[in-house]
Amino acid sequence: KQEVTQIPAALSVPEGENLVLNCSFTDSAIYNLQWFRQDPGKGLTSLLLIQSSQREQTSGRLNASLDKSSGRSTLYIAASQPGDSATYLCAVRPTGNMLTFGGGTRLMVKP
Amino acid sequence: EPEVTQTPSHQVTQMGQEVILRCVPISNHLYFYWYRQILGQKVEFLVSFYNNEISEKSEIFDDQFSVERPDGSNFTLKIRSTKLEDSAMYFCASSEGQGYTEAFFGQGTRLTVV
After folding, report:
1. Which among A51, A60, A9, A58 has a CA at the least distance from the CA of A31?
2. Least CB–CB distance from A34: residue in B89, B102, B106
3. Residue A101's pLDDT is what?
4. A98, pLDDT greater than 80
5. How far is Cα B90 from Cα B43, in angstroms, rounded to an integer?
6. Above 80 in pLDDT, residue A36?
7. Which residue out of A34, A52, A59, A99 would a mutagenesis test of the B interface target, given it has the greatest number of B Cβ atoms within 10 Å?
8. I need a surface site. Which of A36, A65, A88, B78 has the fewest CB within 10 A?
9. Under DSSP, is residue B104 helix (H, G, I), strand (E, B) or coil?
10. pLDDT band (50, 70, 90) for residue A94
11. Which chain A residues have a beta carbon less than 8 Å from that of B33?
């Protein structure tokens, strides 16, 4: 059974720092991996989608990498801003029909 | 930008009552999903739906749950007899295809069973 783990569970950084969020999964047989942002009490906003054949994807200040063989992904956020404060979720697609989520990293960026 | 829309945003119901959560997926999407998130826990898959059939479901999705696409735009989740442990945020999602496509989520319905 696929398990997804995110480390750290919480992170507090000063504004302007570059930071890395980690995601690991136990089974490398995945279709893709998706990073989401969740604001308190809100829905999930898709940030980046990496296909299993890809190594990384970039969107603005965000860069996500995927090492499928080792079961790891990282989300790099450059020049963090207070508006980046949210919970970041990693999810893998082990079958065509479902996503398996990690527990998230709660990020606080202090002005 | 197209988005997945869910109603209501918050529903309070008494234990044992039936509830229907509603979703309008993105219009050209063919695959629809329900997930839930109990407070403080991971987001969990419930069910996927394609071509008017359930394509996959989790062990959580037991006989008290059902899904339906009653018309060309709505996708619903019915919980027949709610329990206290059904209290959670329920998310609807949709995608153009399965497998390699991106899933887009709605804002969620917070269900509180009292």
Report:
1. A51
2. B102
3. 97
4. yes
5. 9
6. yes
7. A99
8. B78
9. strand
10. confident
11. 97-98
